[in-house]
Amino acid sequence: MTDESELLKQRKEKVRNLEEMGVELFPNDFKAEHTSLEILQSYGERSAEDLRGLEELISCAGRIMAIRDFGRAAFAHLQDSKGKIQVYLRKDLLGEELFGLFKKLDVGDFLGVRGKLFRTKTGELTIEAAFIRLLAKSFLPFPEKWHGLTDVETRYRQRYLDLIVNPKVRETFHKRSEIIKVIRGFFLQRDFLEVETPMMQPIPGGAIARPFKTYHNALDMELYLRIAPELYLKQLVIGGLEKVFELNKNFRNEGLSSQHNPEFTMLEFYQSYSTYEDLMTLTEELVGEIALKVLGSSKITYQGSELDLSPPWPRVTLREALVQYGGIEPSPNIVEDYLRARDLAQKLGLEVEKGESHGELLVKIFGEVVEPKLIQPIFITEYPVEVSPLAKKKDDDQTVTERFEFFMAGKEIANGFSELNDPEDQKERFRTQVAKRRAADEGMSFVDEDFLTALEYGMPPTAGEGIGVDRLVMIFTDSSSIRDVIFFPQMRKRP
């Protein structure tokens, strides 16, 4: 088999030959009037006899993906953004010069073609080329075994190759675009205002996470890439924008995994005069609309499991879920309950930090023993106050909040709650949180005084929610890794 260096040598020789022939390698004067999909839609049902009677010339362009050379004739497959079309090239029709040009082309080159349509003996719709134009020369050959490119390092680091050779990958990113389009339309139809908030912030806030730092020379100050847009969006609500949403990029300086990328896309929205109960219903409607408009069904398959997205979805409290899914029996005594939670966390191999509260332990245990079992869509509600610093407490139980998380396929997809709008309560919770985390997590050693000042002007009763767009796309495209739904995921340094 010819190795890669030999293939590269052959390509360079062809480039020299083309230049000697006076062929322009990168012209920009060919107009493609048809896509492969338009050709198929317009003529795909025509018989061979019908096509013979057509006088129309088809003009299209794309990357050469295959060549079958028969000497004085050849077949090639062109791929554009919509699909593929076959081209038939004959020396007696093209002429000596153009057919000679084609003979010096390679898989990977871009070609413009003009000609009439016909059907081959096997019935394939094909363009019989009367004119061709080299549009861009590919200097590098595709990797060995490129027809089935599966090496994840190559696929993620050189996404352009992945897109060229793997149709399923192109389909995944087309669906991603459709999903975002549906999300945007869903909120605009409900009179939400789409807004933009800063990515560089003087104080990282709105979530518990370690931020990325940067430095602004002109302002002579440290800034942080946002970990969440929440505090800015709530300032807009305070300013009278009662329904807002943002499709935003967030950045968290934490680990990499099949579920986490340091840069990720979130949908965050706020609706005044609403509660977390209202947002659970809205979430069911949103996910259901995505399923119907993108996949055409409320039942989808993810990694071998059928998911039924038909509402209503179960609403189960965190403590109920620990009993129902985790087999953890509640204790009548709060002290005994705490001791049992601490012992169980240690048995599970979870790190129990000094001073960790009962609520924090319960959430940690939940993530280990319950979350992986939540396959069908479900809302888990009533999270402890200690892990919900921005959520309103429940009137009938001040130890928990009006908060939910939406799970599906064993993944947390969304987090929402009735917003805390009491500035004194918010100030106390911020300061308690900072005092506890200052030593361990520099990203949380701040109190956003500007936000507290805004809150003192008064915020109407409001509910807010954040949805992980990347994870949602994973499920709707049956992708096992978040890297499969991000064009350019963060990668470790090459060894």
Please supply descriptive tags for the structure shown above.
single chain, 495 residues, alpha+beta, OB fold (Dihydrolipoamide Acetyltransferase, E2P), BirA Bifunctional Protein, domain 2, 2 domains, eight-stranded mixed beta sheet, five-stranded mixed β-barrel, 25% strand, elongated
* Approximate helicity band: 25-40%
The strand order across the widest sheet is: 6-10-11-20-19-18-15-14
Q: From the alpha-carbon coordinates, what is the Rg to the nearest angstrom?
A: 29 Å
CATH homologous superfamily placement of the largest domain: Bira Bifunctional Protein, Domain 2
Describe it.
The protein is of the alpha+beta class. The chain folds into two domains: 4-141, OB fold (Dihydrolipoamide Acetyltransferase, E2P) (Beta Barrel); 165-326 and 370-484, 2-Layer Sandwich (BirA Bifunctional Protein, domain 2). It has helices spanning 4-20, 36-43, 48-52, 91-94, 96-103, 152-157, 159-165, 167-189, 230-238, 276-295, 318-324, 334-347, 358-369, 423-437, 449-456, 469-476; strands at residues 58-69, 73-80, 83-90, 110-119, 125-136, 193-194, 200-201, 213-216, 221-225, 243-251, 263-272, 299-302, 305-308, 315-317, 378-381, 393-394, 397-401, 403-408, 411-418, 462-468. Strand 1 (58-69) and strand 2 (73-80) form a beta hairpin. Helix 8 (167-189) crosses helix 10 (276-295) and helix 14 (423-437) packs antiparallel against helix 15 (449-456). The radius of gyration is 29 Å and the shape is elongated.
